[in-house]
Each structure stands twice: as C-alpha cells, then as structure tokens.
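ARCHIVE RECORD
Type: protein–small molecule complex
Small molecule: FE2/S2 (inorganic) cluster
Source of inputs: curated submission
Record status: active
Notes field left blank by submitter.
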Amino acid sequence: MIIDPLDRPLPGASLHPTLTGDAYTDPEVFRAEQASIFETMWNCVLRADALPSPGHWRTVQVGREEIIVVRSRSAGIRAYYNVCAHRGMRVCTGYEGVSRKLQCGYHAWTYTLEGDLAAAPNLTSMPDVDREDYGLRPVHVREWLGYVWVSLADEPPNFDQEVLGEVRTRFGEVESIDNYGIDRLRVAESKTYDVGANWKLIIENFMECYHCATIHPELTEVIPEFADGLASQRAGGAVHGSGFGQDVAGFTVDGSESGLSELPSIAPDQERRYYAITVKPQVFINTVPDHVIVHRMTPISPERTVVECDWLFAAEVVDRVESGELDVARSVELFHRVNLQDFEACELTQPSMSSKAYKGGGALVPSEHHIGEFHEWWRRTLR
Ligand code: FES
Ligand SMILES: [Fe+2]
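STRUCTURE (tokenized, with ligand):
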C-alpha cells in the first residue's frame, strides 16, 4: 500500500461524522445553499467558444435564476437575468439562438446585445421610460480556462483570489494548471448527465477514492494507486499527481495508447500523471497529459443535479476528429464510464438520505478527510 505523506487523516480522528441526512433532502437547506453559495460564488456556465460571434446567446441556470449569456458587439461576453424589465417575461426562450437584438415576445420591448433598452412600442410617447434604467439587469462575467464564469452577487467574490489563486496554488506542487493551456483546447465531446442525487453527494464522491477499487475497474487498471483508496486531491495542500501503471500506454478505457501527443507545455512531472481538483462550488477539473476533462454541475433540486462533462483536446486533434481522421472514443470512454459508475453510486445513496437509519448521518474514514474539510466549508458558508 502506498502511504502518501500528504494524504494523512485528520489528526487524532479515525472516524469523523458526516453531515446528517436532511442536509441532502431538506428544501430549506437547498434554498439556503442556492442563496449563499450558487447565487453568490463564481459559477462556470459554458465554454466561451459556444458563442462564436456577436448575437449568439445561451440560457443557463444559476441558483434559482435563469441567465442569458450573450456575445455582445462591443463588450465581449455579457450576461443578464432573463427577465424583461417591462412585466417580467422571459426575453430569450429556449436553450440557444442567434439574434441582432434581444426582443421580448410579449410586448416587443427590444434590448441591445449590451443590455440597453433599444426600442419598445410607443417608446417615444413615454418620456419617463429611461433606456438605461429599463435595460436588462446584468450579472458579473469573467472568462477563464476558455469558460464563461458568472456571479450573481452584487459584490462578487474576488475572482483572482477565490478562484485563480486557489486553483494555481493547489495545482502547483509541480507546475501550474496553466501548462495545459486549457483556454486554447477545444471540446471534442460533451455529455450531460441528469443525476438523481444532491450536488453534495457528487462533490463528496469526487473528493475520495475509497470507492475506486469497488466501482472503477477501468480507472484502477490505468492508475493502480487508486485501488489503495488514495485520492489525488489534497485539500488544504498541493494536488498530488497520480501515476499511470507501468504497462499503461495512455489514459484510455483499456490503457492502450491514445495515439495523441502530449499537450505541448506540460512539465515533466505532469507526464504519465492524472491530476484532479474541485473548484467549489460546482466544477471539477481533471488533467492527463493529452487531454483535460471538465465537469460543471447545476443543482436543480435537493435530489437532482445536472452534470455537464467536456472532454477537451488540442485544437488540431479536434480538427482531425471532425474530419474523421482520428478517433478519441477510447479516451472519452474511460471517464464516461467513471462518470456513470460514480453517478449510479450517488443515485443509490440519495434515497437513504431521508431514511430513519441515516437521520444522524454516517462516518468518514481517514482517507475521506477532504470531505470533512468540505463539510466544514459548507457549514461556515451557510452560517
Ligand atoms: S413583458 Fe416583455 S415586453 Fe412586456
Ligand atoms: Fe469515482
């Protein structure tokens, strides 16, 4: 068994209590989480290249709000509440579209891509309707790693400190996450999983590898140390890269060669290694030498979470995949199986959260101490 000095358990603790079952089922708890976590912190909502030119828009769910994310003409990507300033109808309907202006389908108030009110029937005879005051209500937007991040807070958390700094530090025992050039990669495959489980069960699952030997036969073949139950996350410390097995040629479903070159700027310590981090509250980033896998979660209800997973490869690889010259199916299949295995475990856990037998919660073993730290963060944040 590999004993990693960084993976030490909480001092003096053998078993540690979990949250109680109601934290995963209670609508009041869920409302508090929506308000204090998802409607406050930075949420990663979509890949920026999904909006290739001005006028492309998408609607996304953030907390209890629907948000329009649009590429404007003058100011890059902007985001607004999808709420008409007139009488509140949804301005954009559907999942995505392209338009020169954003027009509400009720009384035809029309907004520029920059969110100002541009036109409305009889507007000239209503001098007290100020075009700026009656614009779409904006939300804060950042781009990072090629993704659009939004915060609904009036005063958003400092992105550089809360997201970038923390991720770089935690990724950085070797080199930083920047080596993978994630902003320049392209999505070769995307899958959406509608998971019948509370979002915290999904994060907790991602934070430990105690379950890896039981439910992830393909993953433990490729990364044998996972069979010992040690996760590659080191909450509170630098992330540990987990090495590929000796006979493993690539991060593929059967450990065979992927046929892809390594990403050009990775460091020697990032070769033949897998790294994973959680960017609270809703993103997981997994890196291997030739691709990157990004999960983003959207909690829908206490017992339902949508997870979107992107497989990102070098742009020239994606070009060759699109022309049919190259196939990345074996690379994608590995983490797709891991996802299905993990989400099934979460779905089989969720019903027990309302059981009398789990009222007082369960136990965390020492190698699950990252989950204990997550629970501490959760308590602090909700307080
Ligand atoms: S509600 Fe949008 S124009 Fe009236
Ligand atoms: Fe897992």
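CURATOR ANNOTATION: The chain has two domains: 5-40+177-382, 43-144.
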